[in-house]
């Protein structure tokens, strides 16, 4: 049914309807308790989000699971988007005018912000994945064969993508290839801090089985604490940035609704 309705509504109209819907929510939820730095509006509450599956609790998965106060009513940003926005703003030298950014599977709120900074040097794209909203006019490309020359980008943002890709090593290598030496990539994935070795099995293709093992119907693995090592194997240096390192006060963490135990995986191409 959802598919049928989608076919009936042209893409441009769908975009317009979503904007009207978000404006409506912005008014309904307006208040003082919470603040979204991306749309710079305050709200009485944010919306719940994420999938409620046993594996999320069993494996203590960070970056997944059903959570309250996740989605901003006004711009649709998630807790993760607001964390990354805060990281980008608190890291000197990362954002400068015309910085060459590649944003893979762009989150709408974050995309608008990065595009404004980077101006003409912002590129985004995604491999089409049914059931997800990508915003209007997002080009489609193959993450295993990126349509860009070597050493092009100074910053890559690619969040919650690698867990969908069977050959994640190849995707990591492609990201590495298009980055300038010294460039940084933000590569967030859902991961389990109690799992020493990533679980993956290409034979598991049934959505229900994937939900059970990996935490989402279309995930092909669950990353463990070896995730940074997998990035190092393709040549990256990896930094794991915590909220303490970012010096985000607990009051402010609560105000903008970000997950206290989330860390940011920064993969650097050696200079
Ligand atoms: Zn917002």
CATH architecture: 3-Layer(aba) Sandwich
Question: Which sheet architecture does the biggest sheet show?
Answer: 6 strands, mixed
- Terminal CA distance: 51 Å
At the first level of CATH, the class is Alpha Beta
**Poorly predicted tracts of residues:** none
CATH superfamily: Vaccinia Virus protein VP39
| Overall average residue pLDDT | 88
Structural class: alpha/beta
Order of helices and strands: HHEEEHEHEHEEHEEHEHEHE
* Share in helix: 25-40%
Number of domains: 1
The counted number of beta strands is 12
- Beta content comes to 15-25%
Globular, elongated, flat, extended or rod-shaped: what is the shape? Answer: globular
Total helical elements: 9
| Small molecules held by this entry | zinc ion
CATH topology description: Rossmann fold
Rg, alpha carbons: 18 Å
């Amino acid at each position: 049914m959802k598919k049928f309705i989608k076919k009936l509504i042209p893409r441009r109209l769908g975009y317009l309807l979503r904007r009207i819907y978000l404006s409506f929510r912005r008014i309904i939820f307006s208040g003082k308790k919470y603040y979204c730095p991306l749309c710079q509006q305050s709200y009485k509450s944010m919306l719940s989000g994420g999938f409620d599956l046993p594996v999320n609790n069993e494996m203590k998965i960070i970056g997944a699971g059903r959570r309250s106060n996740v989605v901003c009513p006004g711009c649709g940003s998630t807790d993760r988007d607001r964390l990354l926005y805060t990281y980008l703003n608190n890291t000197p030298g990362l954002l400068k005018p015309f910085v060459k950014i590649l944003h893979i599977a762009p989150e709408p709120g974050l995309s608008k912000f990065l595009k404004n900074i980077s101006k003409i040097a912002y590129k985004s794209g995604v491999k089409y994945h049914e059931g997800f909203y990508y915003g209007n006019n997002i080009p489609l490309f193959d993450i295993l064969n990126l349509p860009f020359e070597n050493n092009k980008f100074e910053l890559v943002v690619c969040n919650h993508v690698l867990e969908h890709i069977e050959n994640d090593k190849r995707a990591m290598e492609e990201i590495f290839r298009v980055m300038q030496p010294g460039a940084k990539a933000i590569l967030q994935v859902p991961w389990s801090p109690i799992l020493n070795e990533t679980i993956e099995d290409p034979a598991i293709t049934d959505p229900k089985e994937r939900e059970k093992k990996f935490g989402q119907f279309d995930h092909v693995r669950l990353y463990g604490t070896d995730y940074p090592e997998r990035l190092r194997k393709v040549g990256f240096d990896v930094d794991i940035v915590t909220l303490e390192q970012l010096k985000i006060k607990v009051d402010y963490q609560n105000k903008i609704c970000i997950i206290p135990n989330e860390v940011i995986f920064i993969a650097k191409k050696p200079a």
